[in-house]
Give the backbone structure.
Amino acid sequence: MRKEIALLDKLDGIDDYFDKNSKYETVIEIEKTENPDIRTLSLKSGSWDNKEPWFIIDENQKLHTMVSIETMHKFIENFRELQKENFDLKLEKTILQHIPIDYQDVWAVAMDEIKKLAQKEEGTKSLNIDLERLLRKIKKDHPNLFLNLKDMFANQNFLG
């Protein structure tokens, strides 16, 4: 009984991650049977018809969640979109640190270089790119796309 109370306290602690209106409702417990290949599911609270996630307490008193394939698919798609946005922001920051003359041109060149790297690594699930090194290479190969502050200040007459 004490373990069950502790698990329900854990559930109360994760409410912050969910909609305030969608407090966990379905809690299921998995119990062993005489057959080691079969387990029994018992509804501890909520309803079998409640929306997800469902919370499952296994026979070792560990807490799990269960969601539909559709929800899992949405989660993965959202995660991929977040990864893309994060990468785009890092690339944008790196480009701006190199003081481009035309940001869009540098972005286009960088994306072409990234596509070339991805084609070389075809078949791998992820691609690790050192954006700083990539931009140094682009700056070296295409110096006309960036301001050269050394040249600008060298051409200035500060003595008037």
User: Anything to note?
Assistant: Helices lie at 2-13, 69-97, 103-120, 131-141, 149-154. Strands lie at 27-32, 39-45, 54-57, 63-66. The two ends are 86 Å apart (CA to CA).
